[in-house]
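Write out structure tokens for Poly [ADP-ribose] polymerase.
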Amino acid sequence: VDAIVACSSSQYLCKTIISQAGIQVQNEYNLLKASDQFPDTTSGGTLPCKKILFIPWSPNSRDPTDVKSSLSTFISTAFTLAISVGSKSIAFPAVGCGKFHFDPSIIAKYMLHETRKQLTKYKIKMNISFILLPIQQNVYDEFIKYLNQMQTVDLMVSYKNLMKKQDDQSTIAYDKKIIKITLISTNDNYLMKCKQEIIDLARIFSIKSKLTNKHDMLDWSQNTINKYYEYCLKQGVIPTLDFENVTIELIGTKDTVHEAEKYFYELTSETFKEARIHAVARNVIWSVELIPNSDQWEQYSFKLNGIIEDAFLKEYHHIDFQNDQDEKCRIIFSAMEEHHGTKIRRIRRKPVDSTLPDTWEPSDQRCKRVLLQPSSAEYQNVLAQFHVTMLGKYSKIIKIERIQNERWYKQYTAHRDDFKRRYSQINERLLFHGCPSTSADQIIRECFNRSFAGVNGVKYGCGVYFHAQASYSHQYAQLNSTGEKTIFLVRVLIGQTCNGDKNMKVPPSGYDTTTDGQHIFVVYHDAGAYADHLITYQ
């Protein structure tokens, strides 16, 4: 196995693994423990692995919701670390089934669920093992129980564009259902005849339907594609989506195939609705006041922003929705208030009047990567900032790209406008952020959202980390399969900052960011940073 996961919160487990791994791992672990740098990795030492991933796990309570959340963080952190060091296989311990005495059924269910979620998210093939003690027969039985409910199907989705063909493979899990029929007779001929009649009957009730010229599905997102596959498989229909020839083939019983056809048109209608919502919300930001009369506002998520704006333009009296904290809320437009139970908070609608940068190329894409020419002033300016502290640490610049993500740029400028209103000087800086190339692609699409909090450490707060020197971010820029690394040059809103520590999940009241007091800055707001340029180098 490439990577072994060790729960750093378990002294017994850590002691056992380290004693088997040898003195080198012992020394590496002592350094991590002394500086409290968990989660982090060490070498494999004498164990049959390349890396040992030390990750803390300790739920806040025995409530299943807390256990699920903590296991989700534990598994996702392991995947992030493993992928960053190029691991193709991971071995997990069944945490919580020893001295914690958690129900093995809960541990098995949530660990397997999150593992499947991460494999689907990263779209990679990886061997996953769960290591159990010989005496844990009950734990083994629960893992086998949930594993037997999961069957994997590979979906090859071909995308056609004007220049080339490209395959994108993802994995979806579904429950496999098998019906077993036992035939008993004293005559073999009767048995064969009965078996054939059953097969013929199954064929009569099974049909194949082919939908052609379905160009609408070319507008589907990957999430919509996955949603359709999951629906079909749950209904017992085998779907084949051919994006090159824009056809859909459905195989199943007559009724279920017809339901799958209807669901295709429902999803297409939903896609058109989402496109309209995106269009109406492009230049408007809806926000809610965090604390009554505090004048501290938080923007709604992009999806909710569009839904609220759509209802506002249709002159609805109110709209009901579930916010990002899973709270059921109602907005009453005439009062410009959000109601949640007995809580009432002010809301506001703010047109985004900031324009896109003059250097951006016109595009009808929401997100575009523009390759800069080495002779351009923009390229040379980015290179100069990168080169200051990277002299001797790189041999070649492969490319520098400008990131044109209109949605996130407008979110950032709206946040910056709020800083201008609150401060005489907004304290905006250009900082660096190093990461694996897989994370770089996600950042370009989704910017620095909350899923990146704590990825590069939590020493100065559980947020997204940026550094004034490219040489520092260089250590977090992992080599990809072609021997290249990636670092972002990022616009960051610093605002009011203070020294941070590992216990901070948000900055103290009155502050926007935290820092080490010198070159490191930690951002907690989704719109507090914008990835301006991506530098790929060797």
